[in-house]
Amino acid sequence: MTDVSQKRANSNAQGEGEPILTMAGEEGIDPAAGPEASRKFRNALGQFATGVTVITTVTPTGEDVGMTVNSFSSLSLDPPLILWSLAKTASGYVYFQVGDPFAVNVIAVDQEAWARQLARSSGDKFVGVDYHRGLDRVPLLAGCVAYLECVTEARYPGGDHEIIVGRVRRLFNIGHPPLLFHRGIFHVLGNPSADAR
Q1: How far apart are CA 26 and CA 11, in angstroms?
Q2: What is this structure's pTM?
C-alpha cells in the first residue's frame, strides 16, 4: 500500500518506541491534545454519513419539544431498542427521563427546512411544521420516512452528552427517500441499488 508508512519514534502518545503511522500523508492525531485536535476529531466524525432524525416529545405541561439529531442508531431487535445522544447543554436535556415518551421522526429529503428549523436552540420550533399526535400526544411530523414511537428505557453518561436508550412501542415505515448528513451538509441519497423498505 503506497499511502501508508511508518517511522519509529522515541516516544509518542501511543507509547515508548511505538511506530508513527502515516495514512495518505496524514499522521494520526490524539483527539484530546487540544482545541485544534478536537476540531479535527469533529471533522473526522463528520466523514460518517448518517440519516437525519427529529426527536420529539411533549412536556408534562403540554409543551411540544423537538430537536434535530443525527446520532441515532439501532441497538437491539429483541427487545426492540434504539439509542441516540443528547447534549448536556441542549434545551430539552431535562426531558427524556426514564419512562418518558418520545418519537424518532426519520426525516425525508423534502423536509430539510424542518430539520434546520428544529435544530435551533430556542424559539417556537414548530411554527409552520405539520404534525399529528401519536402515543401520549407526542408530535409526529407529517411526511417522514419512518416513525418510531418510544419510551425512554435508560440514560447513560457519555462525556458532554447523555446516551438515551428507547424501547420502541409502535412504528410506521413509510419509505420516502431520506435526507442524509455528511461533513456538516445535507445531502440527497444517490441511486439506491434496491428497494430496502
Answers
A1: 18
A2: 0.80
